[in-house]
Amino acid sequence: MQSDSPSTSSPTAPWVSAVVFDIGGVLSAPEGALPAVAAALGLPVEELDRVYWHPRDAYDLGGPLAEYWHAVGAGLGVDLSGRAVELDEVDARQWATLGSAAQALLEEVVGPVREKGLQLAVLSNAPASVEGVVRASTWSDPFDLLVFSAAVGAAKPDPAIYEAVEQGLGLPGEQLLFFDDRPVNVEAARARGWRAHVWQGADGARRHLVEAGVLPG
Questions:
Q1: Percentage helix, strand, coil, to 5, in the chain?
Q2: Pairing state of beta strands 18-21 and 195-198?
Q3: Which of the listed residues 53, 78, 96, 210 has the most CB atoms within 10 Å of its CB?
Q4: What is the pLDDT of residue 217?
């Protein structure tokens, strides 16, 4: 397991070749999609939260849109079949919206990454609808690789999805700097040699990027 404070770093010679970000809980707006979806349904966020996550794993792995929203509706005791597409559009749009602090960090990172010949990647457990919105968003333009669980058919912390990133970037895990909000996902990345950190806000990530030589100190 790697230390959270690597001792080998230089402001001019990065020890990583790519920076990889999760989306939900990292790059996306902190509130996520639940408030917007709950508002569309006219429900308290707490009530939606109770039924939103359990069927999400299958959806993130590529399950049908209709099945996911049917499951959410069943949990709420309502039929959402006629609103599935509408709700999914709200959901995907919100998950693909950057938080202001994350957006500022990305704007700060892109220039040095390009100057140093590094790569940028996204690794996200997300359905195809979120992938579509992210790929259409201008903020994703500087990224060299976007990896989503629904497309791969594997989700973090499954080693297969980390391998997909390594193959897509053409890099070994030891050269990847990764930020994710879930400790289990970070541990799985570290098991493959990634320099992975639990996301603790843009300021915390900035410190790790400085230590790695990606950003100037």
A1: 55, 10, 35
A2: unpaired
A3: 96
A4: 84
**Number of domains into which the chain is organized:** 2
pTM attached to this predicted model: 0.92
Torsion angles phi and psi, residue 124, rounded to 5: -135, 135
Question: What tens digit of pLDDT does each residue of 110-135 get?
Answer: 999 999 999 999 999 999 999 999 99
CA angle in degrees (0–180, nearest 5) for 62-148-143: 155
Residue 206 domain boundaries: 18-28+98-211
More confident residue, 9 or 157: 157
CB 209 within 8 A of CB 21: no
Residue type at position 16: V
202 and 123 together in one domain: yes
Is residue 105 located within the same domain as residue 201? yes
CA 105 to chain centre: 15
Let me know whether 59 and 136 are in one domain. no
Q: Report d(CA 209, CA 46) in Å as an integer.
A: 35
Residue 180 has phi, psi (to 5 degrees) of -145, 150
